[in-house]
Design brief:
This protein is mainly beta and 154 residues long. A 6-stranded antiparallel β-sheet has the order 1-6-5-4-3-2, with no helix packed on it. 15% of the residues are buried. It has 2 helices and 14 strands, in the order βαβββββββββββαββ. A hairpin with a 3-residue loop joins strand 4 and strand 5. Helix content is 5%, strand content 49%. It is globular, with a radius of gyration of 19 Å.
Length: 154
């Protein structure tokens, strides 16, 4: 697995050397993260970017004194799960138009409606307020339940 970490803001230099996690005593115990457990984990969310191929974990961290809040994103990609060369429509939970991800809002495929968020991700397993600018004339603005497959439920 390829692991990429992106930190939003500066982190102590001892923690910045992520390739040497074990050598630098970087730990994650569920409630502690960082060099020698320097950060407390405030929240942790896991996202599926591409089913079976890419995931993202977002953690909000704070030091014990509460004076150093950080956001950590870790993306894991499985290169053995290839995607099609040309992408159109919904491919692995992401919406494409002419091989490009698009923040589209509401789309209709067959008899089903979907909500496409930023980076082309199809919303799944949530409730969303969809404003008039994102209904694309297909639905009325309002609050909609979206099932685990991304279909808007009426």
């Amino acid at each position: 697995m390829l692991c990429l970490a992106m930190l939003i803001s500066l982190i102590p230099s001892a923690f910045a050397a992520i390739p040497g996690w074990a050598e630098n005593n970087v730990v994650f115990s569920g409630t502690l993260f960082g060099t020698n457990g320097y950060y407390n984990v405030i929240s942790k969310k896991d996202y599926t970017l591409v089913p079976g191929a890419a995931t993202e974990t977002e953690m909000v961290l704070n030091n014990a004194a509460g004076s150093c809040r950080q956001v950590l994103h870790i993306a894991e990609v499985d290169p053995s799960n290839p995607e099609p060369e040309h992408k159109e429509g919904i491919v692995n939970g992401v919406y494409y138009e002419n091989n490009t991800t698009v923040h589209k809002g509401v789309i209709k495929i067959g008899d089903d409606y979907y909500y496409v968020e930023s980076l082309g991700r199809v919303a799944k397993g949530t409730t969303k307020w969809i404003g008039e600018n994102w209904t694309n004339g297909l639905l009325e603005k309002g609050n909609y339940v979206i099932d685990e497959n991304g279909k808007i439920i009426f």
